Amino acid sequence: MVVMSQKYAEDPELSPYSARRQSSAASTPQRPPPRPATTRPMATPKSKPREAPPKATEADARKHHIPPGYSLKNWDPTEEPIMLLGSVFDANSLGKWIYDWTVYHHGPATPLSDMAGELWLLLIQLAGKVKRAEECMPRIRRAEDREMVDDFIMSGERLTDKLKALLKACEAPMLKAGRKGSSKTTAQLGKNAGTEFVDSIFGRDRQLDATEKFMSSIRLWNMRFDANCEDILRRPGQYE
Questions:
Q1: What is the mean pLDDT of residues 79-102?
Q2: What is the tens place of the pLDDT at every residue in 177-188?
Q3: pLDDT at position 61, please?
Q4: Poorest-confidence range of 127-131, 145-149, 192-196, 221-225?
Q5: Which of 96, 130, 144, 186 is 20 to 30 A from 25 (CA-CA)?
Q6: Where do the H-state alpha helices sit in the chain?
Q7: Mean pLDDT (whole number) for 144-169
């Protein structure tokens, strides 16, 4: 089970778009329906809530080569950034954003909202395992173990690249939807972009096949990571 920070446990707020990025997808539904507890990542009863992540700064953005003007409010700077139009996310906040918009668009406890909930969890698992492996690498003694873990780090990064390519494929329809709503309020503009993203990433005539293949790849990567790396990461110095 995954521990959710206070930042991501709160309901999303609708934020107006800046004049610079009229087509940004950073806003979220005004009143999303309650999320089904069976699909979203949740904290276990025995887990202690983590402290809220630090607020991202312009210095963090420069460090990660994020272009000026991007919204940083959805990004935990201790995690790898993922950019979508004019906003920066991490794996957790991106998964939450997709899930909230899917529930808003299709309702809770539906096949697509369940799929979005699983995608959220898979993104957290992928990012968390890659980060853990990177942190353990300096303590792994055996060369063959280091090579094994390093291979999984690189394959995990390739999966992240596939995610970014999938998001890129969804951006053009979002921009088009944003332009259609340009004469309306900023809230309507955000709604257009968010629902268009859901239609793109989960649309049968759009990116659904690519999304399903991506999720299947993470599931397989997770199983192989657990089988090959878990024991090494638990005891990285077990062998001389």
A1: 95
A2: 666 655 443 333
A3: 92
A4: 192-196
A5: 130
A6: 6-9, 58-63, 91-106, 111-136, 143-180, 186-201, 208-234
A7: 97
24, part of any domain: no
Q: How far apart are CA 35 and CA 113, in angstroms?
A: 9
Q: Give the tokens for residue 90.
A: 């991490």
Q: With contact defined as beta carbons under 8 Å apart, do 217 and 159 qualify?
A: yes
Q: Please indicate, yes or no, if residue 126 is contained in any of the structural domains.
A: yes
Q: Do 207 and 200 contact (CB within 8 A), yes or no?
A: yes
User: Is residue 187 in some structural domain?
Assistant: yes
Q: Is residue 203 part of a domain?
A: yes
pTM beyond 0.85, yes or no: no
* CA 167 – CA 10 distance, rounded (Å): 24
Amino acid 48: pLDDT: 53
DSSP 29-84: -SSPPPPPTTTS----TTPPPPPPPPPP-HHHHHHTTPPTT-B-TT--TTS--EEE
**Domain carrying residue 76:** 55-234
DSSP bridge pairs for 84 = 87
Whose CA is closest to 174, among 17, 8, 12, 69?
Answer: 17
